[in-house]
Design goal:
Blueprint (H helix, E strand, L loop, with lengths): L2 E3 L6 E3 L1 E4 L13 H13 L4 E3 L8 H10 L7 E6 L1 E3 L10 E3 L3 H15 L4 E6 L9 H12 L3 E7 L3 H8 L6 E5 L11 H7 L3 E5 L39 H16 L5 H10 L4 E6 L4 H7 L8 H14 L13
Length: 333
């Protein structure tokens, strides 16, 4: 698999990374733990060197499962996790009781908790998951710098941060990435965030490469979700590409994308991943699944998308897609 660096840093990754959000029980519907572990290991066996998770995924469960999955090859991969996102342990509705908190003492404690759940003594890349606007960004950045000095972290970054927020963070820590939602149906980062990342010699971690399942090619026009699946609301980080008013239209677009993909002997999911990777600012496209066959299929998305095909995709989606996040829209923060 091809490799890229995060901007001008010396941290190198496979262009496709394993996204651990689906491992968070209570967030993506039901799944089998052993199959999820096998899926992650299949990714590693086929060239994936970056594995991404977060403390909030499954409210700690996702990190525990990831730790079990990677323990035999931990030293051979880039392990990414995210913090400063908390939940009320006493509230049974954890999704409703989730909030950002980058209090320095609590953030420092949470790093140690992540290390324990992941069964490791260091994290290669630690990100502040969502901006906590209640305090200066210099505070969490200093915590991360102290953790680097202590040998707990190797590199630092952010996730879902705007340009101004990244500028403030860089005054304290040499962040190397911004992990953002970016896919065929969501172009919002192209206006400001991606150009800023390039200018500051960082790299993009793109999550939701398959539009959180919409671009898997398996959704019917009447797709429904389990109660514990975050996608059930129809909202997709500030846009509504699979809400009741848009799902039918966008499934029709995906069907047309399947035709474009088949011309190259590819599936629509492979086409979608290749589209994300066609942007040179993207260091890694994250794709997660708890099923081995899906992981095996997605890994074949590492192919060079012809420029003419990219233009064909863009014309189709931007002219017919509904609830599409356009570059002129501000990124949700």
């Amino acid at each position: 698999m091809r490799q890229r660096k995060f901007g001008n840093s010396d941290l190198q990754t496979s262009v496709i990374g394993y996204g651990g959000w689906p491992m968070g029980r209570g967030m993506y519907g039901s799944f089998d733990d052993n199959e999820a572990i096998s899926a992650a290991r299949t990714a590693y066996e086929n060239g994936v060197t970056l594995f991404d998770t977060a403390a909030i995924y499954g409210w700690g469960y996702g990190e525990k499962l990831m730790g079990k999955a990677i323990k035999d090859f931990r030293k051979d991969i880039i392990l990414v996790t995210k913090g400063a996102r908390e939940w009320d342990r006493g509230n049974p509705d954890r999704r409703a009781a989730t909030f950002s908190n980058s209090d320095p003492k609590r953030l420092s404690e949470s790093i140690d908790e992540s290390l324990e759940r992941l069964q490791t003594d260091y994290i290669d890349l630690f990100l502040i998951h969502w901006p906590d606007k209640e305090r200066p960004f210099s505070e969490p950045m200093q915590v991360l710098e102290d953790a680097k000095t202590a040998g707990k972290l190797r590199y630092t970054g952010v996730s879902n941060f705007s340009v101004d927020m990244m500028d403030e963070c860089r005054k304290t820590s040499s962040i190397i990435t911004n992990q953002i939602g970016y896919h065929i149906f969501d172009r919002r980062p192209e206006r400001e965030v991606i150009p800023s990342v390039v200018e500051n010699k960082m790299g993009i971690m793109a999550y939701g490469s398959l539009a959180h399942g919409l671009l898997s090619g398996s959704w019917p026009a009447d797709k429904t979700f389990e109660d514990d699946d975050w996608r059930a609301s129809g909202a997709n980080f500030g846009i509504s590409s699979w809400g009741d008013e848009n799902l039918t239209a966008n499934v029709a677009v995906v069907e047309k994308l399947k035709g474009i993909a088949s011309e190259h002997g590819k599936t629509v999911s492979q086409l979608a991943i290749s589209w994300v990777l066609s942007n040179p600012a993207v260091s890694v496209a994250l794709v997660g699944s708890t099923k081995v066959p899906h992981v095996s299929e997605n890994l074949l998305g590492d192919w060079i998308l012809p420029e003419t095909t990219k233009r064909e995709i863009d014309e189709l989606v931007l002219s017919q897609g509904s609830g599409v996040g356009l570059p002129g829209m501000a990124i949700a923060t």
